[in-house]
Amino acid sequence: MEPGEIHALLGENGAGKSTLMNVLYGLYQPDEGEILVDGKPLKLKGPSDAIAAGIGMVHQHFMLVPVFTVAENVMLGAEQVRGPFAGILDRRRARREVAEVSERYNLRVDPDAVIEDLPVGIQQRVEIVKALTRDVDLLILDEPTAVLTPQETEELLTVMRSLKAAGKSIVFITHKLGEVKAIADRITVIRRGKTVGTAEPSASRDELAALMVGRSVRLTVDKKPAEPGKPILEIAGLVVDDDRQVRAVDGIDLTVRAGEVLGVAGVQGNGQTELIEAIMGLRPTLAGTVSLDGEVVNGWSTKKVLRAGVGYVPEDRSVDGLVKEFSVAENLVLDIYDRPPFGKGLSLKPDAIGKSAKERIEQFDIRTSSADAAVGTLSGGNQQKVIVARELSRPLKLFIAAQPTRGVDVGSIEFIHSRVIRERDIGTAVMVVSSELDEVIGLADRIAVMYRGRIIGIVGPDTPREEIGLLMAGITPDTATPTADSPANEDEA
Amino acid sequence: MSTTAVPEVAVTAVDEGFWTRTRKAGAVLLALGVLAAVLFGALATGQQARFTLSETEGGAALEINGTIGAILFGVIAAAAGAALLAGVPKRWFTLLLGAGLVAFVLSFLCWQVSAAPEGRNFMPLVNVVRGTFILALPLIFGALAGVLCERSGVVNVAIEGQLLMGAFSGALFGSISGSVWVGLVAAAIGGAFISLLLAVFAIRYLVDQVVMGIVLNLLAVGVTGFLYERLMQTDAAKYNSAPRFSNWEIPLLKDIPLIGPALFRGNIFLYLGLLLVLVIHLALFRTRWGLRTRSVGEHPTAADTLGVKVLRLRYRNVIMAGLVAGVGGASYTLALYSFTKNMIGGKGFIALAALIFGRWSPTGALLAALFFGFADQLATYLGAIGSSIPSQFLAMLPYLATILAVAGLVGKVRAPAADGKPYIKG
Fold first, then answer.
1. In chain B, what percentage of residues exceed pLDDT 70?
2. Residue A452 and which of A292, B39, B118, B330 are 20 to 30 A apart at CA?
3. Chain B residues within 8 A (CB-CB) of chain A?
4. CATH 3.30.160.100: does it fit domain A6-213?
C-alpha cells in the first residue's frame, strides 16, 4: 500500500477478503506469515494494536452501539476523560472532536443523534468518522456499498476521494466491478485465499470478472424475447402499511403474465418490501386484491400461498430465507418437509431428504463441504443458491425474487440470473425486485418503478438508464418536477 | 456533501392515532379515580382519618374526615387522569401520573384508616416511611447487583443466592470475630463467591446464564442450610450471634420532620444503599467505565473492535455485583436478625423484578424497590388496624404491578441488547 492510494481488493464471496482484513485489524491471528508496516514486521495482538499502528476498519456489519449517540460511539475505547479519578467522560470535548473531523473531511453527522434513528448511509459515515478520530493512515472498508442505495454509494465514493486527497490510504473490499473501476488506483484480485493478480483500473470489466471467478463470465443476461401468456399475478388497488403503521404501499395495480419477467426497480424503502410481503401473506392488506391465476389470495396463510405454486426468495436471506443452524439438506426441504417423499405422518424421511439434497447441490452448483454442513457456514452466494434451489424445485406459477443477488459474488449472480430466465422460459410468471438497476434492466421484460408506495411508471428494458433513474427519484417525463412532498396527488401510471 | 438524496419516506412521523400512551394511562387513571371516589367514598366512615407525623398517635397530624377525604382524593386522581386524557405537554406526563396515583392511594387510605376501630384510626407516617425503606433495602442492593451484571450483558438470576450467601457469611464471620466490620467484608466476599461461579460458568464455559443462576440459588440454599444445621446450630452463641450495626443519627438532618426520624436515624446499610444508587447511577452514565459497560452489554463485538476487553470487563462487573449483593445480605444478619435457613425467602427474585420495573437503571430500580417496600409495609399496617381486605391480596399487588409494567404500561421496557448472550470472539 502506498500513502494516498485507494487499493481495491476484489474477489468472490468466500474468497478470503474479509478474513485477510480481519487479520490486518488484529481480530484474527495469522497462522503463518507476517504483516509489514513501513518495512517493519508488525505483531497485532488485538484491534487496539492495529489502531495504534494507524489501521482503521469499517466493518461490513457496522460496529456501532445502536442505543448510543454518535459522540458516544466515536469516543468508545478512546474516551476523553477529565475529573479527579480521570474517569469522568468529557462529552463536550468528544462532541467537539466529532464536529471537527466531520468538518475537515466534509462528513456531516450530528454528534448527538442516536445511532438507531439514523439511516444506514449516515451510520456508515459515523463509522468512518470513528476511524478518522483515531488518526488512522490506513482505512479498510469492508463491502461498504453492500447496504447502500445508489445515491449513498455516490456520496461514499466522494468521501473516499476526499480522504485520498487528505493523504489517507484506503483498502476497498468489494465484489462490485463498477465501483472498483470508478475509484480504485490499483486492484488486487483474490480467489480462494490467494492473490491471483493485480490490475489497473483501466482493465475492462470482463477481464476483472474473469480474474475473480477464474473463467470468463457473462455480465449481460442472454435471453430470448419473452412470450407472455395469460395473467398470473393480478394486483388491484393494493394498500399496505409498514411495521410502524405508516402507509407503505398506496394503491398499486400490477399484472405479471406467464412467461415474462416483471422487474420492480426503485430506491429501497419505497414500499417494495411491503408489496412482496403482502403478496406472500406475510403482511395484512388494508385494501385491494391480490389474485393468483384468477383466484383471490388475500388473507391466505403464507403456507397456502406457497402451496398454490408461488416460489419466493426473500430479500434478507439470513433472517427470512434460511435457518442458519440447520444443514443444507434440511434447508432445502423447509417448504415441503411434511409431504412425501420427505415426510409422512409424524416422521421425516432422512434418506429421501439426503438424496434429493445431493441432486440439488449438484444441479445448482452449491459449494458446500457436504449436505450436512450448517448453512450458516456457507458463503453468501452459496446460501442464496440454496434458497433458489429450494424454491425452484417445485412446479411454480409465480416466482418472486427479492434482491436475489444482494451480497452475492459474480459467479453466483450469473448462475442465479440464468436460472431466473430458465424459469421464465418454461412459462412461469417472474417478478424480480432489486435495488440494483443493472440487474433489473438485465433480467426484466417490463420494468415497474416504485416511488413512495406507488408504481410511478412502467417502461421497457430498453429505456435509457437515466430515464429510469429519474423515475426512481420520483420525476416522471410529463411532470418534469419532483413529486417529493405530495405523494398522494399523482395521477396513476 | 449533500444529504438531500436520502429518501424521506422512511422517516415520516409515526401516527399513533388517538390512543397514545399518555391517553391510555389517563383513561386508566380516570377510571381508578372515579372508582376511588365512589367506592372508597361510600365505604369510608365519617370518622376522622389521622396521618400523624410521628411514630405514635400523638403529635402533629394531618386530619380529615374519612368520607370527605376518600372522595376528595378520588376526584383529584380522576382530574389528573382527565387532564392526561385531554392531552397535555409531554413533560407533564410523569408529574400528573405520579400525582394521580398518589391521590388514589390516599383515597384508599382515607377509607381504610377511617374504617378502623375507634382509637386506632391513625397512621404513623414515620413508621410507614421507615418500614418502606427497611423492607426495600435488600431489594435495592439486589437490584443494583442486577444492574451491574446485566448492563454488561450477563443475566443475574443468582441475586437470591448472592444475598443469602452474604447474609450467611456475614453472620458466621461476624460472630466468630466479634466485629461487624469483619462480618461486612466477609458478607461481600460471600456474595462475590457466588457471582464468581456465575462469571466463570457463564463467561468462560458459556453455560446458559438463566439456568446457571437458578442452579447457584439452589447451591446457596443447600450450602448455607447444611452449614446452618451442622455448624451454627451446634453452638449458636459462638457461630450465630453476630454483633449488629447500631443506628447512626445524622446531625441536623435527623431533625427534619417526617424524613429525619425515618431516614437519618438508620443503620449503615440504609446510607450505603442510597449512596450506592447514586454512585452507580453516575458511574454508569457519566464515566468511562460506564460507557464501556453499557457498550459491552449492548454490542460486545463493537466494543471489542475498539479495544475494550469484553470478557475482563464482564468478569469485573459480575464480581462487583456479588460484592454489592453480599452486603445486601448482611443488612439482615448484621443489623436485624440472626441467620435462619433460607432467610432471604425470594427477595432476590423480587429484586430482579425491581430491576426490570426500573428499566435496568439504578434510580429506576430504587423507585421500584421502594414501591414494593411500600406495598409490603402497607400490608403489615392494614393487618395491624384490622382491615377488611385480606393481607394476601395486598401482598399480591406489587407483582401485579410488575406484570403490568413489563407488559408496557411504563413505556417500552428494553433490556440491554446483549443481555444473556455469551461473547465468543471471532
1. 93
2. A292
3. 1-3, 5-12, 14-15, 286-292, 294-295, 298-299, 301-308, 417, 425-426
4. no
